[in-house]
Amino acid sequence: MEDDKGRESGHLMLITPERVFYAGLLGRPRERCSGAVHIYVAIREGLRLTTAGGQEVRCELAIVPPNLRHTIMSEYRSVLSVLVEPESIRAGAGEHLVGRMTGPQRESFVHRIRSVYEEFRRSGCPGGITTADFDTLCFGEPLPRRVLDPRVVRAIEKIGRFSGEPVTADSCAADAGLSASRFLHLFKEETGISFRSFRAWKRARHLLHFANQDLNLAHLAQDIGYPDSTHFSHSIRRFYGLKPRAIFMGSRDLAIYRSGQAA
What we know:
With 263 residues, the chain is of the alpha+beta class.
């Protein structure tokens, strides 16, 4: 599905179940902690990445592992960003990707991701793009997939529906025919992250689908599954470094494209 809001601004976002490609504003530089592998590429000029330990790096490309607190600032008004969901790639593949993108191939990755942006800006994002298609465009080849236990796959699909009552570990455990403690152990063993942290990130990620719409934020928070507006605001600010209202104000000219295919 396509939204034409970003034709003049060049701001766009492609959202798939396992990847996101974003070209747009960063907002004020504040600490953030994404649940995904986060790749930042400067459209022009440079970036400044500061990690939680206070180390600052100036670069054209920065790649940040999931759940690492950091601050990113772009010297140009807009930035390119690619998100990779860690549970979708084989264990160790994220570290390998970091090595590739920060090694001798760094400049070629910068050029590749900028070229993908120019193509998306010129022609729009392709409909029905799969994860393998996305990876080939941005990384030159599909990233190796993680094979998950079917019971964990069903729980992830349930979390991703965002309909009805909020998904709990107890309900997922019952669906899997396991005790709650055994299910929680299995989920973390398979995905590398706790069920609660995973659900919190996916809830915040789902907000991206609505970022350019004029919505009542309190109603949206309830629809996504937040217990109240305060919890909603704190969670979004932790993941994105911005309050929900700031995200929506900065996304009015953002074209959003969506694809539902993972494999």
